[in-house]
Amino acid sequence: MKKNVLVVVLLLMLSSLAHAGDVKIRFGILPVLDTLPLQVAVNDGLFKEHGLDVELIRFSSALERDMAMQAGELDGYFGDIVATCMLINKNVPMYIALTSWRTTPGFPLFGIAKSPARSEWKLPELQGAKLGLSKSTIMEYLADRINEKKGVPLDYFSQIEIKKLPIRLQMLMTDQIDMAILPEPLLSLAKLKGGGIFATAEDLDRPLTVLCLHRKYFNDGAEPYVNFVTAYKEAVTRLARHPEEYRQLMAQTCRIPQPLIDKFPIYPYPMPTLPTSAELDDVQAWMKERGLLQEMIPHELILSPIIP
Fold it and tell me: Which residues form the signal peptide (predicted)?
């Protein structure tokens, strides 16, 4: 009996020593759909298999996450491409490691919902409608790009600043505003509760959210970065092959409302790539127009120097 106990203790010690040299990454996230591959990589031990100790630190708001990254409390960062450029412009030492989501036909991560009272209204009737959104964010960027795609001027709708998503959704469903730009799964929830869908971002063909890593992980051969991307690829592959195995994980970590849990689609997450130069220029040009940037940031300060 004593011999068996000793063997168990030795195995535990060896396991502990094996992971003692793991590279620690404190990764700031939001509880949203485009972080599911990260959740799979942690849940299935994929980062551990590649010598990384990745801790996903969940924030309730983008503001809190950004403040933590600026304060040096995080080593990695999930965020939209607009917020990412703003942080890099403030000299936060990080690179975009990979694109976590880009617009994909059939899978509308963002869209503009109509209130129940306006659910049947068409474009001409909606001129001047009150559109709830958060300004200086990816949502305002998408609202502008949707307007362009619809062939209407940027001031066609009356934009109303409503930063908090639960309040924005509540105001929409009680007809206090006419329209709101919402992420999934709130977009589907609005439709389920009697709202309409005006437009989605699924056909815009551009990156929306990214994963970033501190620049220290790109030094001396960039082994931590390479291992991070390798583990992430494995997570994306598992999700593609066996999506239903991760439905409960998605429900728990991505805030899927109870009425949608059984049927909400598990998205086809893209394999790691970087935004193109043209895509970066488009976002930065919009940011300059909105007064969020004074000058364009050189691409080499934004993008990983290594292609994932």
Answer: 1-20
From its phi and psi, is residue 184 left (phi > 0), alpha (psi between -120 and 50) or beta? beta
DSSP 3-state assignment of 180? Answer: strand
Domain 110-200: which CATH class?
alpha beta
Q: What is the pLDDT of residue 16?
A: 44
Counting Cβ atoms within 10 Å, is residue 256 exposed (0-12), middle (13-18) or buried (19+)?
Answer: buried
Q: Determine the Cα–Cα distance for residues 139 and 184; give it in Å rounded to an integer.
A: 12
Note the pLDDT of residue 110. 98
Please tell me the predicted confidence (pLDDT) of residue 65: 97
Strand 110-114 vs strand 158-161: parallel, antiparallel, or unpaired? unpaired
Q: How many helices (H) and strands (E) does the chain have?
A: 11, 10
- C-alpha 37/C-alpha 42 separation (Å) is 9
What percent of the residues of the chain are helix, what percent strand, and what percent coil, each to the nearest 5?
Answer: 45, 20, 35
Q: Which H helix or E strand runs over 251?
A: helix 247-253
3-state SS assignment for residue 163: coil
From the candidate CATH numbers 3.30.1330.40, 3.40.50.300, 3.40.190.10, 3.60.10.10, the one assigned to the domain spanning 22-103+206-301: 3.40.190.10
Reduced to 3 states (helix: H, G, I; strand: E, B; else coil), residue 297 is coil
